[in-house]
Amino acid sequence: DLQICQHRAPTCCTKKMEESYQAAVRRERTQSIQALNFELKYMIVGHITAFQEAFESLLRFAENRTSSLFETAYRPMAKEAAEPVKELFTDISLYILGAETTVESAVLRFFDSLFPLVYSRLINPGITDLSEDYTECLRLTRQDINPFGHYSKNMVTELSKSLWASRMLSQALSLGIEVINTTEHAALTKECSRALVKMQYCPHCQGLTLIRPCVGYCLNVMRGCLASVSELDAQWREYISTLEYLTNEMAASHDLEIALSGMWNSINEAILHAQLNGPQLSATVDKVCGQPRQQEGNLSSASIVPVKGVTEAQTFVMAHASLNNKRREFISYMKRSRTFYASIAERLCDGDLVMRDSSTCWNGEDVV
């Protein structure tokens, strides 16, 4: 009653043993593909973590730099500006990790929150009544009167270019893990599991437990079994090329580090622009939002303090070098894995599975 290991000679197998062998080859096939995938998956997961740590480190540097700008140059509003600054960098971090948000909405929301502070603390420091309605009116007016000139738009453009590649790389790495996980658990067809049993276990039914499959025979069986997986070859090569493109984009003109390290300067220029245009802005705001209550003997506008340079103690050099090294190391490894899915059958037939050094091996029917 044997279905797979039918042979003219006497046999020590039963149908039940054949079923056990089929369960064994399914388990072994999954384990052997997992073992092959392990190094590749380990490398990608390791770099997802490494890239994210480097991004977070750069964002922390940029956030600290921006916070110290307010503390040194714009002390009257430093405390109230802390929350909008924190929100801006949280939004950027979420964007890099793939959240449904945009750089533009994050930056413009920051400037919306900043305008009421700049207006009431720097341009008109005598304002005492900053009600919720008046603050909201200032926020909404910001979009129409553009108090920060072209600096807010420039900041959106610079950050969008540099953060786009980082966001795409982050998503691409996650996609790579998904692909690898899917191939590990690709279902074995009935024909494939029978072919694997015939190759690996049918010799046992004749007591030939030390005879292993011939190399050519193993390759034929594995290629048949893994046809659907090896079809990924063209897409995987394209995927590696995309990763290469994205890492080059990150390192090229759309440099993430430069864009982040320049954020404080863009914000500073934007605030200076608003202060210099204070009288015109006040006239427009009065028409749109009305006049808020002032202290007696209206204080003069806060003096403009241009900031030439925030403390450079926390340099970007280490984070920059670290990110560059990680990029190079990662893409160099991934390029070596370009043929991963094309050569998967050869790699599964390598090692102990087949007979290489002996003159005798199993060809599916007999010892040859």
UniProtKB/TrEMBL annotation:
Broad class of where this protein is predominantly found: membrane
Gene Ontology biological process terms in this record: cell migration; positive regulation of canonical Wnt signaling pathway; regulation of protein localization to membrane
UniProt topology in membrane: Lipid-anchor; GPI-anchor
Location(s), subcellular: Cell membrane
InterPro entries: Glypican, Glypican_CS
Keywords: Cell membrane, Glycoprotein, GPI-anchor, Heparan sulfate, Lipoprotein, Membrane, Proteoglycan, Signal
GO cellular component: cell surface; extracellular region; plasma membrane; side of membrane
Family in the record: Belongs to the glypican family.
Function of the molecule: Cell surface proteoglycan.
Protein name: GPC5 protein
Species the sequence originates in: Pachyramphus minor
Gene assigned in the entry: Gpc5_1
